[in-house]
């Protein structure tokens, strides 16, 4: 198939990944190409040069319009509207069999566009006002919608999801996150360093548990880092940087337990299954899809309860490493996820297709 993958534009689709959405999109393009599809990535031009890229913007917009300053502003909205409008028009003229929309923008959801090019939209966030009603009005035979967890399906459609919406769990390539049979007794945390990821809770819980902790990830919120994270660092609590995939997998695999501290309605939790693939059981706050993802591979506790999380670190560390690893192999592999994507593509591609507009 000839497939357009439409990305969001805040960060480049390249390693080291700023977060789960960038990782999801990068692995989607790479995986589809490996399966013989012709894939064009519509993303910022500074994304991975190994891909065939049709640049929606020359550079990711965080460089010119930092999200924490410009979010919701007319300046950023107009900038993105112009870029996505032009990109959607190029996709409509590009003889694509299907577009996989990961953009979190309203234009690819428009019925005139999904009628012209069969579309699969992946929703990586909880419902929010800027997108919510466009999503709910967009379901159609030629447009399928996926969410990453049952929790998010209920959040988007509390009254019951339409037939065109379904759960498609994220997946990883376990070979990129090698299983390590024994840990070093320490804990690890990964993610964007921002308040809704809760790194400071992980630090406080690890200290209570008497377990060394290393943090990895991009410092997205400098004020949060300076106020809540950096002052908590010390001999047993360290920041390991923002690493590329292979280096990060090696660091994660050495640890004995993964600490997962979402402070928002986490749609999935890709970092958790990456750690689980390495054999790390998880101590987690029960927010969003955490319990759905972790399952028997860890221990979940009430959100924000640092004392309970400290106890969970010890309890999770006692779970045999084969248990979380097996859960990933059974439920969350890259091949399983790509099989689901291809199935959806076939479904939408068989619908009647209107001529592309000029």
From TrEMBL:
> Which keywords are on file for this protein?
Transferase
Q: Which SUPFAM superfamilies match?
A: UDP-Glycosyltransferase/glycogen phosphorylase
Q: Does the keyword Glycosyltransferase apply?
A: no
User: What Pfam families does the database record attribute to this sequence?
Assistant: Glyco_trans_1_4, Glyco_transf_4
User: What are the residue boundaries of the Glycosyltransferase subfamily 4-like N-terminal domain, all occurrences included?
Assistant: 19-176
- Molecular function (GO) terms listed? glycosyltransferase activity
- Identify the domain of life: Bacteria
Q: Which segments of the protein form a coiled coil according to its record?
A: none
List the protein's name. Glycosyltransferase involved in cell wall biosynthesis
Name the source organism: Sphingomonas yantingensis
């Amino acid at each position: 198939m000839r497939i357009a993958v439409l990305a969001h534009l805040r960060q480049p689709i390249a390693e080291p990944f700023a977060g789960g959405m960038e990782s999801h999109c990068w692995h989607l393009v790479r995986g589809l190409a490996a399966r013989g599809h012709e894939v064009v990535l519509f993303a910022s031009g500074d994304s991975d040069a190994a891909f065939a890229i049709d640049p929606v913007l020359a550079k990711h917009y965080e460089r010119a319009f930092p999200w924490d300053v410009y979010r919701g502003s007319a300046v950023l909205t107009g900038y993105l509207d112009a870029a996505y409008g032009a990109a959607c028009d190029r996709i409509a003229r590009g003889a694509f069999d299907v577009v996989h929309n990961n953009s979190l923008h309203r234009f690819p959801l428009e019925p005139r566009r999904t009628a012209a090019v069969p579309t699969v939209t992946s929703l990586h966030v909880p419902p929010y006002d800027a997108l919510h009603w466009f999503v709910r009005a967009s379901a159609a035979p030629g447009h399928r919608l996926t969410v990453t967890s049952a929790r998010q399906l209920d959040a988007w459609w509390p009254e019951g999801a339409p037939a065109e919406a379904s759960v498609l769990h994220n997946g990883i390539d376990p070979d990129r996150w090698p299983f390590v049979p024994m840990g070093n007794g320490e804990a690890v945390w990964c993610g964007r360093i921002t308040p809704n990821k809760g790194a400071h809770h992980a630090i406080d819980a690890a200290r209570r548990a008497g377990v060394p902790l290393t943090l990895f990830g991009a410092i997205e919120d400098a004020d949060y880092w300076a106020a809540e994270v950096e002052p908590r660092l010390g001999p047993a609590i360290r920041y390991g940087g923002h690493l590329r995939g292979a280096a990060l997998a090696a660091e994660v695999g050495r640890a004995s337990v993964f600490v997962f501290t979402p402070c928002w309605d986490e749609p999935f939790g890709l970092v958790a299954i990456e750690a689980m693939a390495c054999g790390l059981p998880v101590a987690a706050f029960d927010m969003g899809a955490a319990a759905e993802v972790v399952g028997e591979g860890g221990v979940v506790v009430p959100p924000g309860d640092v004392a309970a999380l400290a106890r969970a670190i010890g309890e999770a560390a006692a779970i045999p490493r084969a248990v979380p690893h097996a859960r990933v192999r059974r439920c969350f592999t890259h091949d399983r996820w790509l099989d689901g994507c291809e199935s959806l593509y076939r479904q939408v591609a068989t619908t009647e297709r209107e001529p592309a507009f000029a």
